[in-house]
Design a protein that fits this description.
single chain; 12 helices; disordered N terminus
Length: 344
């Protein structure tokens, strides 16, 4: 990591802002001070009134009972996801854009279940919920309501549209607990790569989200400013690609030109005492390094919110990292512990 980031690790989010956004020349101090003091830039989410079934709802019919599940993440899409025996699944719209859709998997009988919201990755500019079908199915088999959602990509709309979409999907499901036999007071977010950034950004939106019990990120780039610094000409191919992806997310604008947007994207800047606990998993040598989550951990713990950062050997990122021995078990146990607590 860069010297500036190593220095900022022990100095908190404001120091990170100053160091990340300092540019050469006389304007350096002005830019740093502007970003450190910039308001969060968090427009109110605009969820749709009700989750409207899409034009082609997926059949809820189940095939044969499945074998005992094993936690895994799929790197391949599933064309026609089938819910486990006894569960249902339909695709719903939560907004007017074609990508504002979600697959809701639920158990129509028994007690109301806590929910797991799954957020796919893809550099904020690509990816699709179909790549998360295996993860989704696994948590359905564990007895949860599971929401596997798409969101507007950076090519569709700049930040904060992506965060707003996740907020809207969550709000739509929580408004209909009877329909989905779910407990609106108990849910977690599970995000992969860019989806991990969105999950964490929702987790630090405002002073805590109603009902949110925890946030899990697999390789989450929670510090786009760090990614911007690491993605200079001296960075690896993937680091340079992540830098470009973060700029696209910011509407094509650099940190120096659009400090308020970058401040809004930077998750560590928004930690508050009401935020939910978090778990992040990284590979030691992947292009989204663990220190990004360590910066967030410092910010959260400074306001009394616990965060765990688990680091695995190697370079795997996102779904391949999730398939590493011990990772899905750790995530499953952490989620189960958070959702087992009774509603407040």
């Amino acid at each position: 990591m860069g010297t500036a980031v190593r220095t900022a690790m022990g100095m908190g989010a404001a120091a990170l802002a100053a160091l990340m956004l300092t540019s050469p020349g006389a304007r350096a101090a002005t830019v740093a001070a502007t970003v450190a003091a910039a308001p969060a830039g968090n427009p109110a989410p605009q969820p749709s009134a009700t989750p409207v079934p899409s034009a082609s709802p997926v059949s809820s019919a189940s095939a044969t009972p499945s074998a005992p599940p094993t936690p895994s993440a799929s790197a391949s899409p599933s064309a026609s996801p089938t819910p486990p025996a006894g569960a249902r699944m339909h695709t719903y719209s939560y907004g007017p854009h074609p990508r504002q859709i979600m697959d809701v998997w639920w158990h129509p009988t028994g007690p109301r279940r806590p929910a797991v919201f799954v957020v796919h990755g893809g550099w904020w500019s690509g990816g699709d919920k179909k790549y998360m079908t295996s993860v989704t199915r696994y948590y359905v088999q564990q007895g949860y309501t599971v929401v596997n959602l798409d969101y507007r990509l950076s090519g569709d709309a700049p930040w904060p549209a992506q965060r707003t979409d996740v907020l809207s999907a969550v709000a739509a499901v929580r408004r209909h607990p009877a329909l989905f036999n779910t407990d609106p007071g108990r849910y977690v977010l599970l995000g992969f790569s860019a989806g991990g950034h969105l999950a964490a950004a929702v987790g630090t939106y405002g002073d805590g989200r109603p009902g949110l019990r925890g946030v899990v990120g697999i390789s989450p780039p929670v510090s786009p400013l760090s990614a911007y610094e690491d993605g200079t000409a001296a960075g690896t191919f993937d680091q340079r690609k992540l830098r470009r992806a973060a700029v696209r997310l910011a509407g094509g604008c650099s940190p120096a030109r659009c400090p308020r947007v970058w401040s809004s994207m930077e998750v560590p800047f928004h930690a508050t005492p009401g935020d939910a606990p978090m778990l992040a998993v990284h590979s030691a040598d992947e292009f989204v390094p663990p220190y990004q989550s360590e910066v967030l951990k410092e910010s959260l713990e400074n306001v009394g919110v616990p965060m765990t950062v688990k680091t695995m050997a190697g370079t795997f990122h996102s779904a391949p990292l999730y398939r590493e021995p011990g990772v899905p078990e750790t995530v499953r146990a952490w989620i189960a512990a958070r959702l087992a607590q009774p509603a407040h």
